[in-house]
Amino acid sequence: MAYQALYRKWRPSDFNDVYGQGHITHTLKTEVETGHISHAYLFTGSRGTGKTSCAKILSKAVNCLHPVDGNPCNECEICKGIDSGSIMDVVEIDAASNNGVENIRDIREEVNFTPAFTKYRVYIIDEVHMLSISAFNALLKTLEEPPAHVIFILATTDVHKLPATVLSRCQRFDFKRITPDDIIARLKYVAQNENVTITDDAASLIANVADGGMRDALSLMDRAISISDNITSETVSSAAGMAGTNSLFEFSDYIAKEDFTSALLLVTKLHTEACDISNICQGLLSHFRNLMVSKTVQNCNGLIICSADELKRYKERADQYTITKILECIDILTKTADVIKYANNKKIHLESAVIKMCGVKNTDKGTQFYPAAEERIIALEQKLQEIIENGIAPANSSLVPKTGNEPQAAASTEKKTHVIEGSRSDKPLVDGTFGLWPEVQEAVLNYDPPLYGVLANTTALIRDNKLVIVTDNTTLKAFIIENERYKSLYKAIEEVTGTKIKVSVKCTATEPKAPSLNPLQNIISKVDEFNNGNNN
To answer: Full-prediction pTM beyond 0.70?
Structure first.
C-alpha cells in the first residue's frame, strides 16, 4: 500500500479516540445511545480540532448495526463501508468547491429518496461558511424540516459568517483548541505505535507550534520522522524550518546585552540553514511571550509548556530584562510579523527588528543605544534624588512642591554655567586658575580614556570654592553626564586634591537654540535652569 499520512492513518475511529473534546463526545454518545438524534448539527472550531472526524464517527454511530455505548463498532459492514467510502448514503461535501445554489438543489432532490443501505442518509458539509447566499437560502427549508431519514452535519472554522437563520436551525457544538497536554499524549501514543522515539522537549515544541490543532501536530511529526526515527527538538526545528530553542535563547541573550552584531550574525546563520524568516519571527515572539510570563507569574508551570530545565532557563533569562523591555520587544516583533507577510525580502525586516530590540537609534550624536523609557525614568529619578540630597535643589526648587512663600531667584546675567552634581568641598580652595588641572586630566586617563580625550583642550579655575571647567565644546556637559562619567571625574579630582569639590561647566561658545525636548529632557533642562540661577 502507498504511504498514508499520520493524520489520516491515526484519525479517530470512535468518540473515545477523540482527544480534548470530552464535552462534545460525551453528549453525542448519549444522544446516539438514547436515540435522541437531531436532524441538523453544527460543528465549529479552529482547524484540526476534530470537527470532521466527529462528523464521520457520528455518521457511523447512527447507522451502526452493533453500537457500543454510543460508539460505532467499526466491525459491521456498515461501519466498514462508510470508512471505505463504498456506502453512498453518507455524503461528504466540500462547500469551498461546491458552493453554488445548483449543488444545494441536487441535495434537496436527493433527500426525498430513502437510504439504500443505512438507517439515515447523512450529509456532511465541510467549510459550510463558503456557501453563497443563494445556496444558504435554498438550504434553509430542507435544513429546518428534512425527512426523518436525513441528518445534516455542518462544519466550519468561521461560524460568524453563517446567517442567523442557519444557526437557529442547528444543534451547535463548539470545538475547543486541543490543549498541549492532550497533543503531547497523542504524539507519544502515535510514536509508540509507529516504533519511533520522541523526547519530551520535541513533543512540547510540536504542541506549541500546532497551536491547538491535532492535525497540524501530526503533520509536523510526520515530517520529523522523515528526518530521523529519534525525534528531538532539533529534529522538529529542522522539519519546521524554525529556530531551535537554543537559538532563541541565544537571541534573547544578545538582545539583553545589546549585542546587535552577534544577533544579526545569528539571523544570517539561521537563514543560511534554510530556516524560514517568518517562523524565526514567530518563534521569537513566542519566546518573549514566555519571558513575559516568567517575569510576571510566580508559578507559571501551567502557562509555559516546557521541561523543568527549560523553565529554569526562562526564569534566569527573564531576570536580565525589565518587563517594559520585554513588552517593547513583543510589540516590535508583532509589527514585524505583520510586515513580513507581504515583504519581498523578509530578512531585512527581521534584521531591522533586531536593531530596534537592541535599543539602537540614530541621534544627533550618531548611532547610540537608547534605553527603554522605564530605565530612563528610573535613572532620572535617581539623579534628581541625589541632587536634592546634596543640597543643590533645596525646598524652593521647581522639583519640590511650593508653599507660596519662597523667595524668587535672581535672574542671571552671566554666561550659562552648567552644574554637575557632586559633594560640597571639604577644604576651601583659593579662587583663580586651578593649577592642578593637568594632573587631574592625567588621573582621568586611568578611569575613563574617552573622557580624558574630551577634556584635553579645556582649562579650569576655582570660583567660590567650586571647580569651573572652561570649554568651547557645547556638548561637554552632556558627555560628562551621560553614562555617569562625572563619577570618574570626581574620583580623579579627589585623588589629586585630596578633597571633594563641586564642579560646573562654563561654555565660552554661543549655544544654538535647543531643539524641542522630549519629557525627560525637559525635566533635566528645568534642573539645569534652577542650578544656573542658584550658582550664578
So the answer is: no
